[in-house]
Amino acid sequence: MKDVIIEKLSKEELESRGVFSWSIWTKEISTFPWTYDSNESCYFLEGEVTLTSGDKKYIFGKGDFVTFPEGMDCEWDITKSVKKHYTFF
Fold first, then answer.
1. Pairing of strands 5-7, 30-35
2. Which pLDDT tens digits describe the chain residue by residue (89 residues)?
3. Is the model's pTM score more than 0.85?
4. Number of structural domains the chain divides into
5. Residue 89 lies inside a defined structural domain of this protein
6. CATH number for the domain that contains residue 27
7. Would you say residue 11 lies in a domain?
8. Cβ count within 10 A of residue 43
9. Tens of pLDDT along 34-52?
10. Would 30 be classed as within a structural domain?
């Protein structure tokens, strides 16, 4: 299983990928299970998340560009309400 990739991208890099034209998803503070049916990339405009997958933990939020691999089973723990641009591929 591939790992989650967390990056810090410049505004220019985000614009070149078309991130600001992607759909927006928001979610309040909550905890829930999730399975990725396809790869997802997203850019966090707001929020903070701790994601647990098996024995791995990832912490990300505002300003992070994150890619999740297809097939990943995980639990989202949103500790600050999230707003993100996202796309599936």
1. unpaired
2. 689 999 999 999 999 999 999 999 999 999 999 999 999 999 999 999 999 999 999 999 999 999 999 999 999 999 999 999 999 99
3. yes
4. 1
5. no
6. 2.60.120.10
7. yes
8. 21
9. 999 999 999 999 999 999 9
10. yes
Tokens of 49: 């998340």
> Residue 7: which of 48, 86, 51, 65 has the closest Cα?
65
Which has the closest alpha carbon to 18: 44, 45, 40, 43?
43
Task: Tell me how far apart the alpha carbons of residues 2 and 7 are, in angstroms, rounded to a whole number.
Answer: 15
Domain assignment of residue 39, given as a range = 5-81
How remote is the C-alpha of 44 from its chain's centroid? 7
Q: Residue 88: inside a domain, yes or no? A: no
What one-character-per-residue DSSP string does 5-68 give?
EEE---HHHHHHTTGGGSEEEEE-SEEEEEE-SS-EEEEEEEEEEEEEETTEEEEEETT-EEEE
